Amino acid sequence: MAIVDANLVMDMPKSLCAFGGLDAVTHALEAYVSVLASEFSDGQALQALKLLKENLPTSYHEGSRNPVARERVHSAATIAGIAFANAFLGVCHSMAHKLGSQFHIPH
After folding, report:
1. Second label for 17, Cα 20 to 30 Å away, from 40, 59, 68, 79?
2. 55, part of any domain
3. Full residue range of the structural domain in which residue 98 is found
4. Is residue 78 part of a domain?
5. How far is 94 from 76, CA to CA, in rounded Å?
6. Per the database record, which ranges form the Fe-containing alcohol dehydrogenase-like C-terminal domain (predicted)?
7. How many independent structural domains does the chain possess?
């Protein structure tokens, strides 16, 4: 179960928006290129990438002054998560956990 409520991310700092947004991009890309990708996961991954391309820069720069962009980035991250749950992730994601822990980089 997940609570997907964009109100929870309206006031997050720019740095968290950037880290979370780029993490969502990698989730979508990894799902799309996964050897276990399917027509279903590909559609979700591509939609997530489209939403992120269109809304992540605005969400970063305008923050809570543009709640629509914030909500769309939040939705895109969720869609990317659904895509990788169906296609699984690769070594990039595994390395991100280890490197993030070692160098204190948010993931």
Report:
1. 40
2. yes
3. 14-103
4. yes
5. 21
6. 18-107
7. 1
